[in-house]
UniProtKB/TrEMBL annotation:
SUPFAM superfamilies: TATA-box binding protein-like (SSF55945). Pfam families: TBP (PF00352). One of its GO terms (molecular function) is DNA binding. The keyword Repeat applies. It comes from Natrarchaeobius chitinivorans. This is TATA-box-binding protein C. Keywords: DNA-binding, Repeat, Transcription. Belongs to the TBP family. GO terms for biological process: DNA-templated transcription initiation. PANTHER family: TATA-BOX BINDING PROTEIN. Transmembrane segments: none annotated.
Length: 173
């Protein structure tokens, strides 16, 4: 099972942030002003940082905790430098992680929907190519595709996703 996405959020020490003014202070090559937010990206292959006027920011797209930490540190250090210490971070947390597992064989989604029980499953192949399986303990969502690829989303860590994967494998085998 591999991490395919980590989404984290942080709060800056300003409740109201003038993102246009901040944009003017930043390098055009790394920042883009969008409606309602300022995007910063330090390279094509690095996670995006989205800053909002409420003083919050989101970092989606990291594929490891190390990558997330590196981008976060670069971002915070850059903000402190550009604003001469006015802006800093007051909190930061990982919101959820997305993992992928490849079963290596095709899955009959209709049969699986029946096996898992309709109370926790959504399967409408005309609207979405995968089966959506909602878990309670631990809480999260699993997207299962007939190709055998399985996405585990909404979990706070790999242990939770592994627990659900093991439960699912018991159902599949």
């Amino acid at each position: 099972m591999e991490i395919v996405n980590i989404v984290a959020t942080g709060v800056l020490n300003y409740d109201e942030l003038d993102i246009t003014e901040l944009y003017d202070d930043l390098d055009d090559e790394i920042s883009r002003l969008k409606p309602g937010r300022l995007d910063i990206q330090y390279g094509d292959e690095t996670p995006l940082i989205m800053i909002y006027p409420a003083g919050t920011y989101t970092i989606p797209g990291a594929t490891s905790r190390e990558e997330l930490q590196q981008v976060r540190e670069k971002f915070i250090n850059h903000l402190v430098e550009v604003t001469k210490g006015e802006l800093s971070e007051s909190s930061f947390s990982i919101k959820y992680m997305v993992f992928m597992h490849d079963l290596g064989e095709e899955i009959d989604l209709e049969a699986l929907a029946i096996q898992l029980g309709f109370e926790n499953v959504e399967y409408e192949p005309e609207q979405f190519a995968g089966l959506i399986y909602r878990t309670d303990n631990p809480s999260g969502v699993v997207l299962i595709f007939s190709s055998g690829k399985i996405l585990f989303t909404g979990f706070e860590g790999k242990e939770e996703a592994e627990t659900v994967k093991d439960q699912l494998m018991d159902q599949l085998l």
